[in-house]
Write a structure and sequence with these properties.
The structure is a single chain. It is built from five helices and 16 strands. It has helices at residues 15-25, 64-72, 86-95, 154-165, 212-221; strands at 4-11, 30-36, 41-48, 51-58, 75-82, 106-108, 111-115, 126-130, 143-151, 169-170, 178-181, 187-192, 201-209, 226-228, 232-235, 245-249. Strand 11 (178-181) and strand 12 (187-192) form a beta hairpin. The radius of gyration is 17 Å and the shape is globular. The model has no long low-confidence stretch (mean pLDDT 94). The protein binds cobalt (II) ion (CO). Cobalt (II) ion (CO) is lined by residues 7, 9, 54, 78, 80, 110, 127.
C-alpha cells in the first residue's frame, strides 16, 4: 500500500537555526515552508534524494511537538510513508482496529496526511501522506538512505510494518536485524535495542553523499561537531539538532 518513505520529521527548537545545518551546511534544498495552525507548528520540507526531511518548530507551548521538545529535546519525531490512496488505507487500518490519531485525512505540509497512534507501530509515530502533486526530483548533495529503529524484537517490528503498510523486505545477511523498504532507495533498519544503548524507537539516520570533500568543507566551515572516518562522517547530535547522523560515500548496488 505505501510506495516510499516520504519523509522523516525532526523536532527543532528554532527553524531558522535548523536551516543553518540541514539546508545550508548539508545543502538540502528547501521545498516548502508553512505554518500549520491545527498542528501548531512552523514546518519545512527539504529534499534528500528519494525521501525528504521535515523540520518542525512548535509555534506555541501547548502543541504535541512543544511537549515532545520539553520532554525529549530536539530529535527524530516521526516517520511518514507516501501512499497513493490515504482514504482507502485509513479505512483498511480502522477495519483492522489499528489505533489511529486521525481517522480522516487532514491537510499537512506533505499533502493529505494522517497519523497513526504510536502504539500501532511499537512506539514509532507513523504518518501517511498522499501528496497533492507528483514528486519533483530535486537534486540534493546528500541523500536519505536509512532510518535505524531500536526494537525489543526487530522481527516482530518488521512483521508489523510489513502487515500494516505492505513494506517490502530488503535482504540482510541473517542475524537479529531486519530491513524493510526499497533496495537501492530508502530503507528502515530494525536493530535490537541492545545494539543501540537500549533505546527503542527511531535512533539514527544514515545518509549518503556522492561527493564528500565539499560536504566535509561545509561541515568544517560551520564548525559542526563531526568525526570523519574512512568513507563515513558521523555528526554529533549537538550539531544536527538531536539526530544521530551518519553520512557515507554513495555506493551503487
Ligand atoms: Co510529517
Amino acid at each position: 500500500m505505501v510506495t516510499a518513505i516520504h519523509h522523516v520529521g525532526i523536532v527543532v527548537r528554532k527553524l531558522d537555526e535548523a536551516y543553518h545545518f540541514w539546508r545550508d551546511t548539508l545543502g538540502l534544498p528547501l521545498i516548502r515552508e508553512a505554518t500549520l495552525a491545527d498542528q501548531r507548528v512552523r514546518a519545512a520540507l527539504l529534499a534528500a534524494g528519494d525521501s525528504e526531511i521535515e523540520l518542525l518548530e512548535p509555534s506555541d507551548g501547548e502543541s504535541g511537538v512543544a511537549r515532545f521538545l520539553e520532554k525529549r529535546g530536539e530529535g527524530l519525531h516521526h516517520l511518514c510513508f507516501r501512499t497513493p490512496g490515504i482514504d482507502r488505507d485509513l479505512e483498511a487500518l480502522a477495519a483492522q482496529r489499528v489505533p489511529l490519531l486521525d481517522t480522516t485525512p487532514r491537510d499537512g505540509l506533505a499533502g493529505r496526511i494522517a497519523f497513526l497512534h504510536p502504539h500501532a507501530c511499537h512506539g514509532v509515530l507513523v504518518e501517511l501522506a498522499t501528496p497533492r502533486d507528483e514528486a519533483v526530483a530535486e537534486e540534493s548533495p546528500v541523500r536519505f538512505k536509512r532510518l535505524v529503529i531500536g526494537c525489543q524484537s526487530p522481527q516482530e517490528s518488521a512483521g508489523t510494518f510489513r502487515r500494516l503498510f505492505g513494506l517490502p523486505d530488503v535482504e540482510v545477511n541473517g542475524g537479529p536485524r531486519a530491513m524493510l523498504g526499497w533496495a537501492g532507495g530508502s530503507t528502515l533498519l530494525m536493530v535490537p535495542a541492545g545494539e543501540v544503548g537500549g533505546l527503542e524507537g527511531m535512533v539514527a539516520l544514515s545518509m549518503v553523499a556522492p561527493d564528500m570533500p565539499p560536504l566535509i568543507e561545509r561541515l568544517e566551515r560551520s564548525r559542526a561537531a563531526t568525526l570523519v572516518g574512512a568513507g563515513e562522517i558521523t555528526v554529533e547530535p549537538t550539531s544536527s539538532h538531536g539526530v544521530h547522523l551518519h553520512i557515507s560515500r554513495y555506493h551503487f548496488p
